């Protein structure tokens, strides 16, 4: 999508099934219902009172499509309701023709594979079903009614330290989980942080993620293991730019090699932006922005909180090996008194307030 999805008004729209080949015969209604249907498992109680597991198929006809939530270069996100359970979802509809034309198949598959791996954390947008028709792919995702973190930030201008600490803690907790499952996001930014109805964080947009070997997965046969290692090395050498200019790490610019610490560089940029209202590295063009990044050319606004400044400075370090590790960030003075883990996700989001200081010039 290129930045989560924004809550924008729109008329109710239902995606129409179309063939990639205009001369091909259209499917019957029965074929249409089963085409690409995803299978999920649901617990039910049978006539004898016993709990049984029942497979559930989902397809386009199982959902009522509403307004557009957001649009990207090759996808549209709709508000949708499950006709049986009445639960609301966000359904991302990806146009096959455009995906093929723009050679985006790799990124679509990466996003699906990543979301299927990251299923056990409240800070990651959940993928419930995937299915397809002749024209489109469909991803049924968590509905995040709070919109993008960037949109909320723009309304207040800045966040105070309490808000920044809360959102920062949830983002960090989510990064820690991603890394524990062998996932490097590579495009963390406020647009890719969504908020649910409780203003809790949900990370999204994994199309450019790098998948490492999952530490929890059973060991693979020797041949497959070396193949996976080769894929990771090929990814390191890829010449294409990955990420967003203002948040990209210097190592990705200098040798195209993203690592887990690259996400922590982006985390430092986000902490800075939540308090300052703008990213630390910003110039008139991508090239000039990149020059600022590799030269570590940024300044703090006057009145920037000292503890937050120290944290940002320890994250925005050119050598990724010298950046603060996640455990050290959690123990940093800025997060003094902040809970992590399950208690963090049970806590109520603070009231949204802008950062105020008598000497601040934002």
From TrEMBL:
Q: Which domain of life is it from?
A: Eukaryota
Into which EC class is this enzyme placed?
transferase
What GO MF terms are annotated?
A: ATP binding; protein serine/threonine kinase activity
Record family assignment = Belongs to the protein kinase superfamily. AGC Ser/Thr protein kinase family. PDPK1 subfamily.
The entry marks the following residues as binding ATP, namely 92
Keywords of the record, alphabetical order, are:
ATP-binding, Kinase, Nucleotide-binding, Serine/threonine-protein kinase, Transferase
* Pfam families assigned: Pkinase (PF00069)
Q: Which reaction(s) are listed as its catalytic activity? A: L-seryl-[protein] + ATP = O-phospho-L-seryl-[protein] + ADP + H(+); L-threonyl-[protein] + ATP = O-phospho-L-threonyl-[protein] + ADP + H(+)
Name of this protein: non-specific serine/threonine protein kinase
Q: What are the Protein kinase domain coordinates in residue numbering?
A: 63-335
Write down the PANTHER family for this protein, in alphabetical order: 3-PHOSPHOINOSITIDE-DEPENDENT PROTEIN KINASE 1-RELATED (PTHR24356:SF163), SERINE/THREONINE-PROTEIN KINASE (PTHR24356)
Renumbered residue ranges of the record's region Disordered: 1-36, 211-236
A GO BP annotation: intracellular signal transduction
Q: Which Gene3D superfamilies match?
A: Phosphorylase Kinase, domain 1 (3.30.200.20), Transferase(Phosphotransferase) domain 1 (1.10.510.10)
Query: Per the UniProt record, which EC number(s) apply here?
Result: 2.7.11.1
Q: Which organism is it from?
A: Eutypa lata (strain UCR-EL1)
């Amino acid at each position: 999508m290129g930045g989560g999805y924004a809550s924008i008004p729109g008329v109710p729209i239902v995606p129409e099934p179309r063939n990639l080949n205009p001369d091909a015969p259209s499917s019957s209604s029965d074929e249409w219902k089963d085409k690409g249907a995803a299978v999920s498992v649901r617990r039910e109680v049978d006539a004898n009172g016993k709990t049984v597991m029942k497979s559930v198929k989902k397809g386009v006809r199982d959902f009522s499509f509403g307004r557009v939530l957001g649009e990207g270069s090759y996808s549209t996100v709709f508000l949708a309701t499950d006709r049986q359970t009445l639960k609301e979802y966000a359904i991302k509809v990806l146009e096959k023709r455009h995906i093929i034309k723009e050679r985006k198949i790799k990124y679509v598959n990466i996003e699906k594979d990543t979301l299927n791996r990251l299923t056990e954390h409240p800070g990651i947008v959940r993928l419930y079903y995937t299915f397809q028709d002749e024209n489109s792919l469909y991803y049924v995702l968590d509905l995040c009614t709070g919109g993008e973190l960037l949109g909320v930030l723009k309304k207040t201008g800045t966040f105070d330290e309490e808000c920044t600490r809360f959102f920062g803690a949830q983002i960090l907790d989510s990064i820690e989980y991603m890394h524990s499952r062998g996932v490097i996001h590579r495009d963390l930014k406020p647009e890719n942080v969504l908020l649910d109805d409780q203003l809790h964080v949900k990370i999204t947009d994994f199309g450019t993620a790098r998948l490492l070997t999952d530490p929890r997965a059973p060991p693979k046969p020797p041949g497959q293991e070396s193949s996976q290692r080769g894929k990771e090395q090929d990814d390191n050498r890829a010449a294409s730019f990955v990420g967003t200019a203002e948040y990209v790490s210097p190592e990705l610019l200098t040798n195209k090699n993203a690592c887990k610490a690259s996400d922590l560089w982006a985390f430092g940029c986000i902490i800075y932006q939540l308090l300052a209202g703008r990213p630390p590295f910003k110039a008139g063009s991508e090239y000039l922005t990149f020059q600022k990044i590799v030269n570590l050319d940024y300044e703090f606004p006057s009145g920037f909180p000292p503890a937050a400044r120290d944290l940002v400075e320890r994250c925005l370090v050119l050598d990724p090996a010298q950046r603060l590790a996640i455990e050290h960030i959690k123990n940093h003075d800025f997060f003094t008194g902040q809970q992590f883990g399950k208690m963090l996700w049970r806590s109520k989001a603070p009231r949204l307030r802008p950062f105020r200081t008598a000497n601040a010039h934002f």
